[in-house]
Amino acid sequence: MFRARPETRRSLTVTAISNDAATLEGLGAYLNRRVSYRSVSAIGHLSKALLASDCIVLYPDGFPVRPAQRLAMDLINCPTVSLVIIVTTQTKYQELNRARTLSNRLIVLSPPAWPWTLFATIQSSLPSLHRETSRLC
Fold first, then answer.
1. Rounded to an integer, what distance in angstroms lies between the CA atom of residue 73 and that of residue 93?
2. How far apart are CA 39 and CA 134, in angstroms?
3. Range 47-75 burial, b when 16+ CB lie within 10 A, else e
4. Model confidence over 58-74: pLDDT tens digits?
5. How far apart are CA 111 and CA 19, in angstroms?
6. Contact 39/55 with Cβ under 8 angstroms?
7. What is the pTM of this model?
8. Which residues 6+ apart lie within 8 Å of 28 measured at CB?
9. CB under 8 A, 24+ apart: contacts of 91-97
């Protein structure tokens, strides 16, 4: 019988920001086995822990519009965050996605964005993961 190798945990930090506890919990259950995962249920000032993340997944739909947009722009412009994924139904963020030619660090997805889809997006978007994966084969 075919046996798959156990998942290899990457040295990657992913932080999810959402006001929906079920979203954070479900994403955490999936990502915790693959990466270092943190969750934040409120938006406010950028913390050092948040800025130390390699990837941030933002669900802005449950937050007030202006603070969520401000946070999204701050994350996109942050030099320490390699990738920002925004999962939203709002078209305002699609405009940011069109402007990403300046920065290849933003991806806007429409819900539902399943945890395995987010992980595959992160893997395909961060070049260091490609190198680590190729060494494992």
1. 10
2. 29
3. eeebeebbbbbbbbbebeeeebbebbebb
4. 999 989 988 998 888 88
5. 15
6. no
7. 0.80
8. 16, 37, 39
9. 92/65, 93/60, 93/69, 96/72
